[in-house]
Amino acid sequence: MAKMGKEIGPAAFGRAGGDSRHWAAAGFPKKDLITGTLWCSLNPYMLPESGKGRRMMRRGQVVFVTIATLLGACDVQADMIGPHEVSGEAVRPINGTPEKAASASRIWEPSAGHIQVPIWPGAVPDALPNPEPESVGPPLGREWWPRANNVSRPTMTIYAPTGVNTGAAVMVLPGGGYQFLAMDLEGTEICDWLTSRGITCVLLKYRVPESGPTYRDGKRYYPPVPTALQDAQRTLGLIRAKAGAYGVDPKKIGVIGFSAGGHLAAALSTNFAKRAYRAIDAADAISCRPDFVLIGYPGHIWGHEDEDEKVRDASNLKVRGDIRVSSATPPTFIIHAEDDQTDSVQQSLAYYIALKEAGVRAEMHIYAEGGHAFGVRPTRLPIGNWPKLAEQWLRSIEVIQ
To answer: Distance between CA 262 and CA 255 in Å, rounded?
Structure first.
């Protein structure tokens, strides 16, 4: 097959979906896609893997695999696929080289010009006694993508605005089911979008696993201490304490989170009056309340999600007890897809209703299609317009001009 003039993979293809109308609209002729390759649609991105979550693509996203890969095991993972090009009979990753696959034993590092720094100056509070060593990437033998695993030393990375500095800042919270962190899809790619709009971003690599609600043996599990919340509280305080050095207005510091990171954003928004850890320095005396919040396809919020689907009342939209919405909860922007098979739309509906009942300014956009874990990657679906709506919302609350 001749080399195509486009990159193939989520970064370029976006979430076009398994429908031929979508991938045709995305500019990929069917004959080019199926010559020497096979395509298949897979289920949502969280499936069990030896007791740990593994990220799969949401329903309807197209994955391109070689015939040899398919015969070996049709075990392709959505956000593990980076930009690709077609050459001969193989799909060759541009950035997913064997060298990167071999780097699974290393830790996630930001791109050149950025430095991640620990958020805790000494011992990490409530640390796991014998944590697994941190690593980056999926299990060996799978397409490489920059997921952070077994984070026990949380860090923050500053991304300065590339446009005119608006003075606003956003802490970015990737998802991953509190099992790992999607550092590209819901991390650096979000930073690229916001910094291009003049917003400083702080990407938080918070602790996982055992840091927030997740699933264990098929049941929801809450760890004894919400250490991810500790990390988020600490980092928000640090940003505000160092606002001058970062060129940030201390009254324009927000947070954005997706999936599990969306839950963490909601938890921070409703649990800021008291730190979840003992103060260690002056930064912990500064408010960790976000000034605004953006949440995408969150989980662990709806109070009835664990009940039997056959008997539960889906119209009973109460939030879980750890989400303590009040009139002091910051203005919130929410997005979700109705066909999300990982975290149902009731998660966002429940949170929105709680916000409105508390008199909190909130805006919510529900789309018919989009699935889970779409981030800001391009798609021909209407849900691809949500970043523009988010920017309009930020202007409406006078965070940016």
So the answer is: 9
